[in-house]
Design brief:
The structure is a homodimer.
Chain A (H helix, E strand, L loop, with lengths): L15 E14 L2 E8 L2 E7 L2 H6 L8 E10 L7 E12 L20 H6 L1 H4 L3 H23 L3 E2 L5 E2 L11 E4 L2 E5 L4 H11 L1 E9 L12 E10 L4 H22 L1 H6 L13 E3 H12 L11 H15 L3 E5 L20 E6 L2 E7 L5 H10 L10 H8 L5 E7 H9 L20
Parallel strand pairs in A: 3-5, 6-10, 12-13
Antiparallel strand pairs in A: 1-2, 1-4, 2-3, 4-5, 7-9, 8-9, 10-11, 11-16, 13-14, 14-15, 15-16
Chain lengths: 435, 435
């Protein structure tokens, strides 16, 4: 007999079907045993009134793998609107030990319980509630890819083991590479820029490694990044529009397709417009300082509280909880950024629900200017690690820009979680390297 | 004026258009200057007969970034069937140095020239011919994902920094992790198996790291792997059918969609059937030994020449150059494989055009048998690295199996290249860590 998934059982009312899954719950109500079986599609209730069948489950725990044949009866009060009667139960894999966590109710995501959550991730994900987070994550990735395919971006796979050159910034992990030293890529920055010279439009979705010596709600030592780069842009607007369209499409589609899951996860209502409001860094400082009776106008970057506040502000005033912040001061730039005529950096940050999701700058594509900027940043343009990157410029790259886009952060904020690690299957930080 | 891509110029016959791209070639024929411009879509020829326009290009090299406005004229002999006349040329980014390689003809892929090819990869990919390899790679990945989405596989992202547990086999890279030691994941093996307990069907496409101390045509120290795992299978057949359908679909679709590119790359004609022929290891030894007047019947695994021969044999005799080889002897097994009743391993290798592309075993899902197999393999089941993996079994996993599928190898063989590194943007091996 062919297996039927829990979600499809109702379509077989009156028929005999076979289901397979995990024992999820056992209950005795009024002398009748109710068993709930879990499979990848959901839950199905089984009514076991025959003693010999119930007897098979004696001493067996949640997680026991079962095959059950039975008669389908519609039952509006049961999950999925149907249940199986008169079951014939086969024990496929018995579980006799009591699992360390209970997965038949939502697991606690309180900050003080996160360590328990992550220590038991390999079992906790058996909770249908937990799975929803990662089904939404997969759906976001799928929508993002769809958008990029449609817009003629070529997927590239760049190396994660590097000879040492990095784009600066975060600390790097080092590894012994056959007697030499290699570093783990913090991002595909230099590679994706070089590939503009071939494909014009490229993207990569891959892990990136950052030896962040701190444990915060926004950082991990292994992150999942969407890196995009596009050539022949006319300026920052082209980059912002691409990132805006990608984000709008992915998030609204997922809110449509996964409405029930998002409701179960208590995700906030989505307040998004096709055009995200734009503010300069100076405007955010001014608005925030006025509203909060403080003075942040001397800050170079936004402070975390400003990121939260400006998204709330835009949601209230503009009906959109995603915003772009632009005109970052020169002091905040990286050596490969391009400066605007007014001395600020051609760079926009995408903030969504209070968190920076993506950094979207235009790159300096003039070889001689880039060399000067490297020197000003204290970097040696003669260093072997920059040889290929600088050659790509010297032999002609058009104006280009793109983004480093945090997938974990997008998942976190789409669902309304409060720690980026909750959006990650097996998070890594200074204190955590397992499971 | 809006930019028009080279491939679309012909549609604007008689009109004024603007194109942007790289100077790809300059030729003077019969007193008239022909310029070829490259963009992401292809090449377009520009006829420059006015001295002032030609003068702008004096001293400028291939790679110079140009904007050109001109009149479109149909011209069957030109690439794309049209050319631009009476051009107005703007130099966007001048290139004055002569590039180290010529990209207007196919680059040499002869074994003795591969080092030059890889040393100049960042520039060599500007050759339209080279780009085709990686457009086909991206297309294969896209088709594979489509198949997996349609079959309800959930994309997972598992960590690449591990506490030390590995599935055994290849050497591992080690990194300092905040004063502790971490290893780089050789594969997501244990993680994908654990995730069967949640999602039943999962996949990941990600880099894997192998400290292979050798430089061969089939190995790299950083590879791109498709890892799939599916639960509630009835046996090895279910895994083989899934891998067969995925492969058949991806390769035939790409041969359809990229017929011209594959022809330009001199890819062999595709000889594939929906059902791949199946041979046991013993059968391959026997057939090969008889045909080649030798004796391999005492070999545990297939020797590389047998892998080549059996694919040729199946192509000739069965009309299919992809085959499965099954019934590997117990001596070749890994601790997490499942044994069949006859004492061979429930494991199939997918070979395509002479190379092992994927390994597709069923896993041992009985906790107590797995523990015994670990001990027999000299591994310590008490080791912290196996704690979570063994817990996943102890708390119930159904029969499951999947594959480790080499994306680089699939690309190599789909195109008919002869070294896996040619299918990789920036290959890594014992001798190569850059560009």
């Amino acid at each position: 007999m062919e297996r039927v998934l829990a979600r499809d059982v109702k379509q077989h009312a009156g028929q005999q079907v076979m289901v397979q899954g995990w024992l999820h719950k056992k209950r005795l109500i009024g002398g009748i045993n109710f068993i709930v079986l879990r499979d990848r599609s959901g839950l199905i209730q089984i009514v076991a009134d025959k003693d010999d069948q119930v007897e098979k489950l004696r001493g067996l725990q949640v997680g026991t793998v079962l095959t059950v044949e039975g008669q389908v009866k519609e039952e509006p009060r049961a999950p999925g609107g149907a249940e199986l009667h008169d079951p014939q139960i086969t024990i496929e894999v018995p579980v006799t030990d009591e699992p360390p966590i209970e997965i038949d109710k939502p697991l606690s995501h309180k900050p003080e319980n996160l360590d328990t959550l992550f220590d038991n991730r390999h079992l906790g994900l058996r909770s249908p509630q937990e799975q929803k987070v990662f089904k939404i994550r997969a759906a976001l990735l799928r929508q993002i890819r769809r958008f990029l395919y449609e817009n003629e971006f070529v997927e590239i796979n760049t190396p994660k083991l590097l000879a040492g050159a990095t784009e600066g910034g975060a600390e790097v992990f080092k590894t012994d590479y056959f007697g030499k030293e290699a570093t783990l890529a913090q991002s595909p920055q230099l590679y994706k820029q070089m590939m503009v010279g071939a494909f014009e439009r490229v993207f990569e979705i891959a892990p990136a490694f950052r030896a962040e010596p701190s444990a915060t709600t926004r950082h991990m030592s292994e992150v999942y990044m969407l890196d995009i780069e596009m050539g022949f842009i006319n300026g920052l607007d082209d980059v912002m529009e691409m990132v805006q369209d990608l984000t709008y499409n992915a998030v609204t589609e997922v809110y449509k397709d996964h409405a029930d899951d998002l409701k179960d996860l208590k995700a906030p209502e989505l307040v998004l417009k096709e055009q995200f409001p734009r503010y300069t860094v100076a405007e955010v400082h001014k608005l925030y300082s006025e509203a909060n009776d403080t003075d942040t106008t001397n800050e170079k970057d936004l402070i975390p509280d400003e990121e939260k506040w400006i998204c709330e502000h835009a949601k209230k005033e503009q009906g959109c909880e995603a915003v772009f912040v632009t005109n970052f001061p020169k002091e905040a730039m990286k050596f490969y950024h391009k400066l605007a005529d007014d001395g600020t950096v051609l760079w926009a940050d995408l903030l969504f629900r209070g968190l920076e999701i993506a950094t979207c700058p235009v790159r300096e594509n003039r070889h001689e200017v880039l060399v000067e900027q490297m020197k000003a940043a204290g970097l040696d343009p003669q260093s072997p690690g920059y040889k290929y990157f600088l050659e790509a410029m010297r032999f002609g790259l058009p104006m280009h820009g793109g983004c480093g886009y945090g997938i974990d952060r997008l998942v976190e904020k789409t669902i309304g979680l409060s720690n980026v690690k909750e959006a990650t299957l097996f998070p890594r930080d200074i204190n955590r390297l397992s499971p």
